[in-house]
Amino acid sequence: MKILSINGSRRKAGNTESLIQSILTPFQRGGAQTESIFLGDFTIGACTGCEGCRNSWVCVIKDDFAQIVKKLDEADGIVFASPTYWYSVTSDMKRFIDRCYSLIQFPVTRKEWISKYQGSKKACVTAAVCEQFEESAMGNTLSLLTDFSKDIGLDVVETVKGLGFFEAGSIKADHRLMEKAETAGQHLFDHIKR
Ligand SMILES: Cc1cc2nc3c(=O)[nH]c(=O)nc-3n(C[C@H](O)[C@H](O)[C@H](O)COP(=O)(O)O)c2cc1C
Known about the structure:
- The structure is a single chain.
- The chain has one domain: Rossmann fold (3-Layer(aba) Sandwich), CATH 3.40.50.
- 33% of the residues lie in helices and 21% in strands.
- It has five helices and seven strands.
- The protein has helices spanning 15-29, 65-74, 91-99, 141-151, 175-193, and strands at 2-7, 33-38, 77-83, 104-105, 114-115, 123-130, 155-163.
């Protein structure tokens, strides 16, 4: 079993990374192959809307995006996680998501699409962290990650939300949330295994 985590934060040992680590714990325990990447370590340019991917599932822009698609192709499970930056995902995550336009096709009308991973049984957990305690401060961070994951054909098994964390790694002191994240990881593990 292969599990890939994709982190939209550039803060190493930050709150998003801590949340991801808890989600991945059951996979490490269960002997799965895990890989964690920070999108900021890759060069991913903005989608230009050129439609060059229209009939190919392949983005024509030559940068590191294809490397990440290869990792997605090979993964059984994925964790998409981002801190909130101004009520949404980080710009690294948003550029990545925009480029995943190449993973959907509109064969008949613009109202309906097919996705590269539909029917693939790939599953995911989405997670988001923000500083403020009010739900509204997170904006669309978690719903965007979740809707996007569904749109590219992944089964979203669970979503995890961390409200009220600012200092890097401070989220680790919230043992209940860390346990919740681990349980979400366990549910993803069980979902993939069955
Ligand atoms: C540019 C920027 C914008 C942010 N915008 C928000 C926001 O809109 N709402 C919020 O609650 N926190 C916001 N934050 C705080 C981060 O979401 C918070 O510190 C989070 O824990 C960072 O996660 P990380 O440690 O994984 O990078 C912002 C932080 C930065 C740097």
